[in-house]
Amino acid sequence: MTETVVSTSKPQPAAAVSVQEPGVPLPPAPSPGRRAAGRLRALDGLRLVAALMVAVYHYAGRGGYVTEAWGTTPKHQFPTLHQFAAYGCLGVQVFFVISGFVICMSGWGRPLKSFFASRASRLMPAYWVAVVLVTAVFALPPVVYEAVSPSDALLNLTLLQQPLGADRVLGVCWTLWVEIRFYALFALCVVLPGANRRRVIMFCAGWTLAAALAQAAHQPLLDLVVMPEYAAFFIGGIGLYLVHRDRRDAYAWGIVLVSFLIGQHYAVIDLWNASDPDAFAHRTTTGIVGVVAFGFVAVTAIALGWLNWANWRWLTVAGALTYPFYLVHEHLGWVVIRVLHRTLELPASVTFALTITAMLLLAWLMNRLVEKPMTPWLRGVLSRKLG
User: Is 297 exposed, middle or buried (0-12, 13-18, 19+ CB in 10 A)?
Assistant: First the structure.
């Protein structure tokens, strides 16, 4: 979601972001010529792939705090893998394309109060637990990483720490701030007046133009609102949902194509670092464009139904693990890596695999013990209060 993210400390992409939630209804049955509604389990699987891309980046594709966990730079731990892992930060952009698709799907035909309740109940329970968990772990005496102040930790519970300038408990939460601004734009411009094809197309066109003007104007407030560096990925996902509804929609295909062209441009500007002699690993423009293209092509294949055969139930479970995994994998991963590799002296490859496994297990526990009971409860509370 969502994301996107990346120690996520730059923003450095990581993640993001959670999006598709179990139980969100699809729009009413499409008219002739439109694709039939159904659970898109392949989309759940793609979400987990994007989250794992970010995790591989955080563990083996960058320097920073993870170097303290390994004891040396991951470049020395993984002489070959680190070159490919450096592209894992683009999992955030893949998340944003998925998010555009899913938010358009879940907002279609839904009143504003229901949309708000759905988004808040999907994001906040796991996020609150992740903030508390990371804060508590970092406060333990054996853990060498510095915890944020109690005041900043409390502010983090609002998800407004970034605009208010506080330290972040979760490095990846910058992508959630991007997601929230997308939700707000979509809610005000599409959900509030009522989603329909023409309104969605006008929203995509207007946002694309506004993002280009914001880039040219160099106005921080405009950048904050329209997010020119990320807008194309969300807009592309929205266009792909229109394609999912009607693959013959020329306007939808135009939105997707323009969004890809703009999105790859921003990705290259942000992440191409061949001229930096101190870069952890040098990404090529071809590699960056290729990963962005993978995200668009993968969601396109899902939108067109080409991956409907991937209908295994375990993909739904994989999708459910994505968001909590994304939230906790970075900071708690540092702690696990340090214990396994430096204290227990396990080989780097074994440590890498066990850390991923441990974070997935923790995500499963969070989903079972936190999200499953709290998400429907919070959605019901918010729906009643807003009713």
Answer: exposed
Burial class (CB in 10 A: 0-12, 13-18, 19+), 113: middle
CB 175 within 8 A of CB 14: yes
Pairwise CA distance, residues 344 & 351, whole Å:
10
The torsion angle over the Cα atoms of residues 172, 174, 175 and 179, rounded to 10 degrees, is: 140
**Spatial separation of the C-alpha atoms in residues 238 and 191, rounded to whole Å:** 13
Following DSSP, what letter does each residue of 225-285 receive, concatenated? Answer: HH-HHHHHHHHHHHHHHHHHH-TT-HHHHHHHHHHHHHHHHHHHHHH--TT-TT-SSPPPH
To 5 degrees, how large is the angle CA 319–CA 61–CA 279?
Answer: 145
Tell me the pLDDT of the chain (387 aa) as tens digits. 443 333 333 333 333 333 333 333 333 333 333 443 457 899 999 999 999 999 999 999 998 889 999 999 999 999 999 999 999 999 999 999 999 999 999 999 999 999 999 999 999 999 999 999 999 999 998 887 888 999 999 999 999 999 999 999 999 999 999 999 999 999 999 999 999 999 999 999 999 999 999 989 988 999 999 999 999 999 999 999 999 999 999 999 999 999 999 999 999 999 998 777 777 888 999 999 999 999 999 999 999 999 999 999 999 999 999 999 999 999 999 999 999 999 999 999 999 999 999 999 999 999 999 999 999 999 999 988 665
Query: What's the pTM value of the predicted model, to 2 decimals?
Result: 0.88
Which DSSP string do the residues of 19-79 spell out, in sequence order?
A: ---TTPPPPSPPPTTSPPP---HHHHHHHHHHHHHHHHHHHHS--THHHHHHSS-HHHH-T
- Element (H or E) spanning 98, and its range? helix 91-107
